[in-house]
Amino acid sequence: MKLRTKAFIFLGPLFLVIILAVAFYAQYIVGAVFKKQTIDHFRSIAEQTESAYFAFVENMKTRALDWASDSTLRNLSKGILDTPRGSFERARLEKEFAAYVSEKKMPFDKTIFLTDLLDHEGTVIASTDPKRIGHDEGSQEFSRKSHNFTKTINSTFGEAFTKGIVTEAYESPSPVIRATARIAVPDKDGVFQPIDAVLLIHFSNMEKIAAVLRGGGLQEGRQTSESFIRNSQTSDIYLVNSEKFLVTPSRSIKDVKVNQKIDTLPVRECFERGLEVSDEYENYQGTRVLGASMCLQDDGLVLIVEIDKDEVYAPMTSFVRRTAIGGVGAIFLGFLLVALFVRRPIDNLNDVVLAAERAAKGDLGTLIEVRTKDEIGYLASVLNSMITSIRNSQEELQASKENIEIKAHILEEDLKEHEKQQQFLMQSKKATLNLLEDSWNVGEKLQAESNKLQTIISSIGDGLILIDGGYKIVLLNPRAVEMFAMPRQDVIGKDLREVMKLWKKKKDEILPAQWPIEEMFLTKSVVTTTLEDELSLTTVWREKQIPVVLSVSPLGGGIPGGVIVIHDVTADRELYDAKSGFISVASHQLRTPLTSIRWYSEMLLSNDVGPLNEAQKDFMIEVHDGAERLYRTVDLLLGISRIESGKIKAEKVPIDLGAFTGEIVKELSSQIDEKKIVLSVFPPEGGPVVVPLDSLTLRQVVLNLLSNAIRYTNEDNGIIEVRWNTDEAGKEVKYSVRDNGIGIPEAQRSRIFSKFFRAENALAHVPDGSGLGLALVKELVESWGGKVWFETEERKGSTFFFTVPLV
Ligand code: ADP
User: Fold this and answer.
1) Which of 629, 632, 744 to mutate to test the pocket of ligand 1 (most atoms within 8 A of CB)?
2) Helix or strand (DSSP H, E) at 101
3) So what's the pLDDT on residue 374?
4) Which of 130, 180, 469, 773 is deepest in the core (most CB within 10 A)?
5) What are 486-490's contacts with CB under 8 Å, separation 24+?
6) Does ligand 1 have an atom closer than 6 angstroms to the CB of 381?
7) CB of 748 closer than 6 angstroms to any ligand 1 atom
8) What is the pLDDT of residue 455?
9) Is a pLDDT exceeding 90 seen at residue 408?
10) Nearest to residue 771, comparing CAs of 757, 760, 761?
11) Does ligand 1 lie within 6 Å of residue 788's CB atom?
């Protein structure tokens, strides 16, 4: 539950309880006090009023005494008493009495409506109303309690009496009060002696009494009742006689003639038990009133002072009402204040609570707006700084978590790398083993290739080096270590390019970019050099060159790197050199006798020494052809040995390739025509190309390539195309001879440039061949710094290329 709701729920009932408590207090506690005070007040008013009433009654008595001592009245009274009843004198005196009182006395007091003169029995002997003469007023004293006749007739001079107020419709419609006084007459001494005559004065002065009761007279102390009457609307003071009739007008009953019966609590209490009442009760109109009564038993009267309870309680009721309204107002005001003043802090507190909830759920994104400068504002700013510091530490945590994750990632990567390396090593190991096997195979092949050197080669172990993709030496065998002439641990991890150098023909250094290893990396295939490549190596620890044949194989499984098998061909090279020397000597030695054989066989065939029979001629032709073939072979061998021994002195002249090619084609035209081959020459468009070469050397090269193309092309449908052109940079010329002949089987392509090597299909197609032509071509092309190579597909044809550098 929200704090605001709690505040409302708590404050609402609290206010309500306070209001109820105040109302209860006002109603019952204050009410009781109020009631008591009011009643006490009434009591004193009643007492004052009672005395006012008595004072007024005294006034009437004084009037009676005054009249009783009036000389005319007393003389008339004495005269009436002394005159016999029924006499004229008596009648005259009676009339005089009536006239005197009516005219001389009663006009001064309008409330006196009748005056009687009674004899000692109480019988009316004179009256302002002559009809009353003879009326027995004495019995009235007891039956009606209307006057104090007995007391009066027995009283001495100077005493007067009154009795209660009675309602006597036959005398007066309004209640009547009677005063009696005994008439006294002065004797000869001047002393007043009472006579048997009583003056009975009838007052009907209820209005006046009422006025007196209500403070109308100016007697002392009357202000209280007057203000009591004046200041309240329902207050009343009235008299009720023993017959329980209202005898003075009340606020609601102005006319007392209506004979209103008043049978209320104070009336009953007074006349039945002689008690006075100060209490709350129901008045004659059925209204709840607060009142006090004075019981005037002698006068047969009860004086009642009363007021509506509602009026007494009105201020209090209004106070309670005001309090209630005020309370409700206060509640609203309270809520308003809460809304106005407490809402902001509570809202702020709500913000704080919400922010705390959010923070608890992990949302530290927003800070609380500090709206107030009180404790809640302070709390908000404290929570803000808490959130900020949590956020900071979370960020730090996050950062360190990320850091840890990065480190973990790095570790993972390292682990992966490690695993990769391990895998790589395993694979390398496997590959090495495989390649070791391969190397032996290669070694075997090399052995097969150089039969004569087989024993020596097989007895020598090959050097073996494993490198990664960056030429870093990963592994090498003892033979390689031996070749490198350094301890194994110094080589491992070194860049091969930094520790090894390769040389061609002992004098030309081959830069790493031209190494067969680079070719292996590019083509991802095995690259093998041959003895004819005349490679040798040195290392940083060994200056002496070792002639070598290399077999470089890429590592399988996509692992960068390769295995280099170094075959020490020192012995092979020596043998090769020896062979070359032998060939040179042999060919020289063979050349002279062969010339003789050719010459003499030609002479014999041309019948220079006499005719030959057919059989002799046939044999001679065979001799001559064999000698020719042998001569050509020897010629080739001599060519090669000359180059190898560096005996050829090339004389470079500018040669126009177009004219040059045309001449050679012309030379070969008979063979071309014989096989019905279509030979086309495609000179480049940009005009003649001139190369600076020795013409004999170039002739050997082009002639060999063209004659091979013719020889290894099938009859009837042969096509040969010759092309040459200069490269864009103008640095070299590329020359090519293309045929659609038998092609070269894949397995034998690597050995095509080896001396005496002939491919199997060539052996079958052209049995007559030496396998020396291309060896010579290679030697010649390389002698001028060019390159030679071929592209071929078995049964589809071959293209042989060579280049001539122009600079
Ligand atoms: P020969 O031609 O006398 O055998 P070469 O040295 O000229 O010797 O050639 C060596 C080998 O190269 C040939 O035996 C043949 O197997 C192959 N060869 C050369 N030229 C061609 C070619 N144009 N077409 C197919 N094979 C060829």
Assistant:
1) 744
2) none
3) 76
4) 180
5) 486/539, 486/540, 486/541, 486/542
6) no
7) no
8) 41
9) no
10) 757
11) no
- Sign of the dihedral defined by the CA atoms of residues 508, 510, 514, 519, in that order: positive
What is the value of pTM for the model shown?
0.42
Q: H-helix or E-strand containing 135? A: none
pLDDT per position as a tens digit, 534-565:
899 999 888 889 999 999 999 888 888 998 98
pLDDT-derived band at 693 (thresholds 50, 70, 90) equals very high
Nearest CA to ligand 1 atom 19: 708
Question: What distance in Å separates the CA atoms of residue 140 and residue 123, rounded to the nearest whole number?
Answer: 10
Taken as a whole, the chain contains a residue count of: 807
Distance (Å) of CA 707 to CA 294, 670, 672: 176, 12, 9
Type of residue numbered 703: L
Spatial distance between the Cα atoms of 623 and 605, rounded to a whole number of angstroms: 10
Name the closest-CA residue to atom 8, ligand 1: 771
Tokens of 558: 């996509």
Q: Is the CB of 772 under 6 A from ligand 1?
A: yes
Question: What is the DSSP annotation of 345-376?
Answer: HHHHHHHHHHHHHHHHTT--S-PPP---SSHH
Q: In the prediction, which pLDDT does 204 show?
A: 82
762 Cβ closer than 6 Å to some ligand 1 atom: yes
Give the separation between CA 238 and CA 425, rounded to whole angstroms: 136
Q: Pick the atom of ligand 1 nearest to 759's CA.
A: 16
Which residue of 754, 758, 765 sits with most ligand 1 atoms within 8 Å of its CB, as the best mutation to test the pocket? Answer: 758
718 lines ligand 1 (CB under 6 A): no
Q: Decide if pLDDT at 687 tops 50.
A: yes
Please give the C-alpha separations between residue 356 and each of 391, 674, 788, in angstroms, as whole numbers: 13, 107, 86
The residue behind tokens 């009675």 is 166
